[in-house]
Request: fold
Amino acid sequence: MANRPVEPEQAMAGLFEGLTRLQRMALLGRLEAAGAGLYRALAADEKNTKAREMLLDAAGNEEKNGGLMKLMSTPKDKCEKCGNALSRPSGGVACSFQCTFCSDCGTALQHVCPNCGGALESRRTLEARP
Ligand SMILES: [Zn+2]
Ligand SMILES: [Zn+2]
Reply:
């Protein structure tokens, strides 16, 4: 019996199965960076000037989205406020953008990120989020 071909959407969804939220963000960021390269390659042999501009814009958007996913999924290794080193994955607190603080500074900030105004959560919790 012949195997049914796997649709690309299905194959892509499969890549994300069983990953944590941060792992999904990291993977999505990598796929978007790869997507940017594909858009640039399409732009390179596009004759229509306007279409080429649009493809290059699309590449830029992919890079921007990929950059956001990388930022949001890459833990930092020290406190932004006091500069003390943090142990991964459990040390300190962070916001959704990975603005990161040690426990003492997090408490002093009343668990509100001074950069984005979002909540500072335990990094252990953030890392484990399904
Ligand atoms: Zn600190
Ligand atoms: Zn923040």
The mean pLDDT is 94. The pocket of zinc ion (ligand 2) is lined by residues 95, 97, 99, 113, 115-116, 118 (CB under 6 Å). DSSP finds five helices and three strands in the chain. Residues 49-73 form the longest helix (25 residues).
